[in-house]
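Human: For the file, kindly provide a plain-text protein record giving the amino acid sequence and the backbone structure tokens, at your earliest convenience.
Assistant:
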Amino acid sequence: MRVSLVTSVGRADRPNEDFVGAVPGAVVLLDGAGIPGAESLCSHGVAWYTHRLGGALLGHLSRGDEPDLAAILATAIGAIAAEHGDTCDIADPSSPQATVAMVRAGQGRLDWLLLADSFLVLDQVDAGPLVITDDREMTARRECATPLAGIAQDTPEYDQVRALCVTALRARRNQPGGYWIAKDDPRAAREAVTGSRRIAGLNGVALLSNGASRIVSPYGRTDWPGVLDLLRASGPAGVIARVRQVEAQTTGGADARSPDDATVAHCTHLPR
């Protein structure tokens, strides 16, 4: 399997909270959640968490001693929680956490796992791209934001209600009926979106963090077939360059967003 990896920090004054890495036959991509105020809960920080968790996942995948991706993730979450559970308030909803995307190819099959809102794009031989994500956080976010409807922005009332909405969303983290993310509880791994299919029908597979997927939504500058075309032509660096270009063009506009860490992995020549 041939793997191309690129990650780009969103802000020069902050560490990259994404992680991407590969071992023979497997790729791991994590998107760390940088939550304001988390420094008081964990002295290590989000970047430390994503790199420790990503490294643990790659270690298990390289050994090939566990066939179940969810079990690998559960073991890794538990191990990293044990590393800083005595010194940090890891049970707080705002403590370091990360989305997880994993793929593993072997014996003619591709297995995958997604936890929270990263993206997996299967480049199918005889059909368009199959896009897989875990949209439960977005669903919870929309539901928790309902009280903001009709309230004017940049007003004290809006700020007060928004703070309540944020608290409500965080309370749904790793809870039934809410959404799941890698943090301190290994049981979250069993809630991941998983799947498997034969490699024979695939040209390749791409993994994108939320910061890289912006090129499709919300920016709408291409679609998922366009992302695959860009990957074939320019690789992961081409996708991220387009994201940064759009961010620069939309500064101060309706689509303006703070630059986010962006990471892409593109896997081709899958073992058949």
